[in-house]
Structures are given as C-alpha cells and as structure tokens.
Amino acid sequence: MSDDIKLVYTGSRAEGLFLAELLKENDMGAIYKDRLSSSLQAGWADGAPEDAVQIYVETENFDKAKAFLEEYFKTRNDKS
Predict the structure, then answer these.
(1) What is the C-alpha to C-alpha distance for residues 30 and 58, in angstroms, rounded to an integer?
(2) How far is it, in rounded angstroms, from Cα 2 to Cα 14?
(3) pLDDT at residue number 2
C-alpha cells in the first residue's frame, strides 16, 4: 500500500459507508475498499461481513481522521 494513504477503519459495510461519508463531509476525504464485495464479484468470498470494509485517508489527514473516528465511537458508545 502506498505511503500516501493510511488505514483508519476496518469493519462492516454499513458502518463503513457511513463513516466514509462523515470523513468526506468533514474535509478529510476517504478511500472506501470493500474486500468482500470485490471478492464476491470475482467468484469467491474473502473475509467476514463484520470486517469486510477498509477506509483509508491521506497521510496528512490521518491524525485528524483517527481522532474524529475515536470521538465518534466514544459518543456513540456513551449513548448506548
């Protein structure tokens, strides 16, 4: 993987789509990679649904995106 991007999230497809959109709305951009969907299209299944998606951001946005996602998960879990 390129040094220009870093992984900030691995998880489910539904939450991954939501988080990628949140990152984009907050000017951090996001690259959304759905390994399970890609592998199914190729004729096999790679990975489980709960960790099928990976979200990458540019290295310059990594710390900001990581902090943003940590805050999101903290507030989400506090509401439970």
Answers:
(1) 8
(2) 26
(3) 63
The CB density around residue 69, as the number of other CB atoms within 10 Å, is: 18
CATH code assigned at 42? 3.30.70
Residue 42 CA to residue 3 CA, distance in Å, equals 27
Residue 12 CB coordination number (10 Å): 16
As beta bridge partners, residue 31 has 56
Pick 16 or 48 by higher pLDDT: 16
Q: Take residue 70 and report the two structure tokens written for it.
A: 């940590």
Q: What is residue 77's predicted lDDT score, i.e. its pLDDT?
A: 77
Our count of domains for the chain comes to 1
Expressed as residue numbers, the domain containing 17 is 5-78
